[in-house]
Design the sequence.
């Protein structure tokens, strides 16, 4: 059987689409009556403007949830993108060789069995998108549909999520999922980010993170309902010293320290529970 092309589009709500880029990462297109929004830019194997044009001819802005290579890889296809200032430097030097390694790793994990793609599909560019500031409380009015930005640091210092009250969806990037990685931040910072999501829990029913159908899994779904509370519980127990911190196989065979509870695993740096001068979340 012929493999699929490098992307797969699924409708997850009215006027709401997820673009699964070859199992590498997910992008979302959200439409209002006047404008649309593209959330994240994938690894950059796809002609994004052509793919977005398949689901909308509305003008649109581009928001990056955080500055990891699997979400900024395609950013250079746009003149300007919204990204939090704490992650904005990542746009300066998109690590294309690291991206190629990432594609190869996920390919071997199963993506190559499903998608017709290889690292040579990555669209390298010397261009650097202009970073427009993304911050707490910002809104994108799409016409009859407003998406609000909340700051959800922890996975990266500048991680942000978007809340769509109309379709009651949280677009959480990599900030809150079954395998939450606390990277470049303290556990206390991660807990603050999760608390911020918790404070808006009444506004959403589904939590779509920045990966659907990871590697070769042909699956499109939101995170289990308990993910947020489980992740908060893990952070609380790490900070109060009662967590069982164990060594696990992290991404691509790298060892990591982690705590498991319920549906969630949180990977952390045990040396970085709370930063100097940081106000405790509890
Ligand atoms: Zn990430
Ligand atoms: Zn990611």
Sequence:
């Amino acid at each position: 059987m012929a493999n699929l092309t490098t992307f797969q589009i699924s409708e997850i709500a009215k006027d709401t689409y997820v673009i699964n880029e070859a199992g590498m990462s997910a992008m979302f297109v959200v439409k209002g009556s006047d404008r649309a929004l593209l959330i994240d830019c994938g690894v950059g194997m796809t002609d994004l403007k052509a793919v977005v044009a398949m689901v909308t001819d509305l003008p649109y802005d581009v928001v990056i949830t955080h500055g990891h290579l699997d979400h900024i890889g395609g950013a250079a296809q746009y003149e300007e993108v919204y990204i939090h200032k704490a992650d904005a430097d990542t746009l300066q030097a998109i690590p294309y060789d690291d991206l190629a390694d990432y594609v190869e790793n996920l390919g071997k994990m199963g993506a190559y069995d499903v998608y017709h793609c290889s690292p040579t599909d990555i669209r390298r560019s010397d261009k650097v998108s202009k970073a427009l500031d993304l911050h707490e409380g910002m809104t994108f009015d799409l016409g009859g549909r407003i998406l609000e930005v909340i700051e959800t640091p922890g996975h990266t210092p500048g991680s942000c999520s978007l809340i769509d009250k109309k379709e009651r969806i949280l677009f959480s990037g990599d900030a809150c999922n079954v395998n939450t990685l606390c990277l470049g931040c303290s556990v206390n910072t991660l807990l603050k980010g999760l608390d911020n999501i918790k404070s808006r829990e009444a506004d959403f029913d589904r939590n779509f993170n920045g990966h659907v159908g990871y590697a070769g899994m042909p699956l499109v779904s939101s995170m289990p309902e308990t993910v947020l509370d489980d992740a908060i519980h893990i952070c609380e127990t790490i900070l109060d010293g009662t967590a069982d911190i164990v060594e696990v196989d992290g991404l691509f065979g790298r060892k990591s320290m982690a705590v498991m509870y319920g549906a969630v695993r949180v990977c952390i740096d045990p040396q970085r529970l709370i930063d100097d001068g940081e106000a405790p979340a509890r």
Summary: The longest helix spans residues 96-114.
